Amino acid sequence: MREIKYADAGVEAIQEEMRRDPTIIYIGQGIGPREGNYKQSRGLWAEFGDHRVRDTPISELGQVGLGVGAAMAGARPIVDIVFLDMIMEAMGQIVEQAATIHYTSNGKIKVPLVIRAAMGTVRSTGPHHSRCFYSWFAHVPGLKVVLPASPEDVKGFMKTAIRDDGPVLFIEHKFFYNKKGPVPEEEYAIPFGKVRILREGSDVTIVAMSLMVGKAIEAANILSQEGISAEVIDPRTIVPLDREAILESVKRTGRLVIVDEAPAFCGFSAELAALVGEQALEFLDAPMHRVCALHTPHPFNPVLETAMLPSVSKIVDAARAATRG
Amino acid sequence: MTSLGLAVGGSRLRISEAPTLEMYGCMVRIRLFELKLQEIYRSGAMPGFIHLYVGEEAVAAGVCQNLNQDDYVTSTHRGHGHAIAKGIPMGPAFAEIWGKPNGCNGGRGGSMHIYDPSYGFLGTNGIVAASVPLGAGAALGAQVRGTKQVAVSFFGDGAVNNCAFHEGINLAAIWKLPVVFVCENNLYATETPFAKVTLNTDVASRGPAYGIPGISVDGNDVLAVYEAAREAIKCARSGGGPTLVECKTYRPLGHFEGDPGIGYRTREEIAEWKQRDPINLIRERILADGLATTDKLAAIWSNLEAEIEAAYQYAKSGGEPDASTVEDYVYAN
User: Fold this and answer.
1) Which residue of chain A is at minimal alpha-carbon distance from B146?
2) Does A49 have pLDDT greater than 80?
3) Whether the Cβ atoms of residue A228 and residue A202 lie closer than 8 Å to each other
4) Would strands A204-208 and B179-185 be described as parallel, antiparallel, or unpaired?
5) How close B258 comes to chain A (CA, Å)?
């Protein structure tokens, strides 16, 4: 299979959809002639022009608010926030407007809006350009949340997100943009709500999201040398969540380690632990472990940053603790 | 000038040059609808809160007279007048405000979240200033699809210092979106006087800051509102971009039904504005110009009373929703 960059996979999906549907527009800062901070909109403005690819000033609230309004009025906007941290400026329009309109209108109005942003750590991007609070959106009824961890998933999920008739938070990881991976040549879309099992195993289930998937696989390789067989699962879509697959795995292995680049307290890792505690408690052979970012803002210094974040060795230690005894 | 700082006379239009009787009818319709709501609300029958549009009817009637059914409106927490003027049938509107399942959006929203896309009505709103970017966005949708629709964003003086106002208008301006921004400046945001929290109280003057025209009109003169809105809507529809129209008006009642509305205002101020009731103002001109007789106006009034009574009965018959529907429509698919 051909290998293309994560950024280019997103571009292909958007390009194919924009060619198919003239109501799709792309709005964001520096996404026109500049082609995006990560080249995540490369070629779009050259092909579709100012009418459908619109550079904005630094106005996240306005960008999203106009996206919601346009979605209500027959367009299908993609609003590119670039850095997830900047989405804070637009929270009201996402939480109070986009998420509520279809429900409150009794199903009469749809908001087919994709909000795209990149989360997470690349070395020392610092306190205002590194956050991973995707769980906040999962907490809001009405929003779907996608965390693609590979070029194949980016392309397949982006098409589904664009075709979804409701608001979708499409949260990439900025570390991945230049990384290549296999992507099918033929057109495809991946439905929401199914995990990807990266590695089958029998002794412990490791659930990891986004950048943490690769660390979980590295940890699994180390663990296998110690005779511990780890199953690595990437939920991929936080909402809708494939609860069945996660529960099936934990019921089989009896042990769970959750790896999240966001802090543990009130994060998505807490939701997974609650899910297992509520629906598979009697299958657990050991307490669950969460390997998450420490409960701090994101430091700039590389040593502090590394100390704050999950690591392969922290995951290995947690899996060993879960499988001991 | 009156002591309220308004130019006497207002519009240059002759009442024969405008659909005056239609707008009079719209204003009376809104007034009677709001007073009936007030009556039923005071009886304790209705849940939630209502923010009545009494006293501001000239703005909704004058603006919406220029709109087609498929034009868009985004509105505020004080938006019953916009909903009625835009054409939402009164029975489903009354029922929605009452939270009944036969409301235009199933009682899901109530007063501050009325939606009816078949009239382009994209919501009253509990978030002040949200109507600005949402209305600009609706205009963007029309521009993307290449239609001739326009959008009107209604908002109050309470919205103009909010980020959503700034960002929404700037984006509409740079993209020449087919939207008109209508500020209903009634001098108070709940109990906070506009002049206390804003140094430059000339809302219309903010237009040129974004490179768009700003017009200020007597918001209680329906012909002045109609004329300004007509020009602004024509400009938007022909690709000329947005306009900011400030309508100076007043709400003689409290902020919400139950608020006496006098702790933060003088009775003299309220009385002075009641002298300028927009329905009385246009009625005097209609009679003076001979456009209609008192009998004709009385007939309009009593026909509307009957319509409002029918709307109330429709709403009253609504019952309650099936509680098992509570999880419907969280997601579109």
Assistant:
1) A23
2) yes
3) no
4) unpaired
5) 25
CB contact under 8 A, B332 and A102: yes
Rounded Cα gap, residues B252 and B261, in angstroms: 8
Confirm or reject contact between A169 and chain B (CB < 8 A).
no
Q: Where are the alpha helices (DSSP H) in chain A?
A: 6-20, 44-52, 60-72, 91-92, 101-104, 135-138, 151-163, 212-225, 243-253, 268-279, 302-308, 312-323
Q: Is the pTM of this model over 0.95?
A: yes
The answer to whether A69 and A107 have CB atoms below 8 angstroms apart is no
Q: What is the DSSP string of B44-111?
A: T-S-S-----TT-HHHHHHHHTT--TTSEEE--SS-HHHHHHHT--HHHHHHHHTT-TTSTTTTSS-G
- Count of structural domains within chain A: 2
Instruction: Kindly determine whether residue A109 and residue B117, on different chains, have CB atoms separated by under 8 Å.
Output: yes
Domain C-terminal end among A140, A159, A182: A182
- Domain-located, residue A177: yes
Of A22, A71, A93, the CB nearest to B133: A93
What pLDDT score was predicted for residue B10?
63
Which residues of chain A does B122 touch, with a Cβ-Cβ cutoff of 8 Å? 69, 72-73, 109
My answer on whether A117 and A229 are in the same domain is no
CB pairs under 8 A between A and B: 165
CATH code for the part of the protein at B15-310: 3.40.50.970
Is residue A170 located within the same domain as residue A283? no
Q: What is the mean pLDDT of each run of 10 residues along chain B (333 residues)?
A: 44 88 98 98 97 98 98 98 98 98 98 98 98 98 98 98 98 98 97 97 97 97 97 97 98 95 94 97 96 97 98 97 97 95
For residue B3, what pLDDT is reported? 39
* Together in a domain, A124 and A212: no
Q: How far is B152 from chain A (nearest CA, A)?
A: 12
A50 interfacial to chain B (CB closer than 8 Å): no
| Residues B137 and A27 sit within 8 Å (Cβ to Cβ) | no
Q: Is the pLDDT of residue A123 over 60?
A: yes
Q: Which domain range does residue A272 map to?
A: 196-323
CATH number where A176 lies: 3.40.50.970
Query: If pLDDT is split at 50, 70 and 90, which confidence band does A165 have?
Result: very high
Tell me, what's the pLDDT at A325?
Answer: 61
Average of per-residue pLDDT across A168-175:
98
A64 or B8, which is more confident? A64
Write the ipTM: 0.97
- Report yes or no: A104 at the B interface, CB cutoff 8 Å: yes
Contact B160, B198 (CB under 8 A): yes
Question: B231-283, pLDDT tens digit by residue?
Answer: 999 999 999 999 999 999 999 999 999 999 999 999 999 999 999 999 999 99
Out of B127, B175, B332, the one facing A166 most closely (by C-beta) is B332
Q: Is there a single domain that holds both residue A10 and residue A137?
A: yes
Residues A118 and A263 in one domain: no
Which residue in B has a C-alpha nearest to residue A60's C-alpha? B167
Q: Would you state the pLDDT for residue B9? A: 46
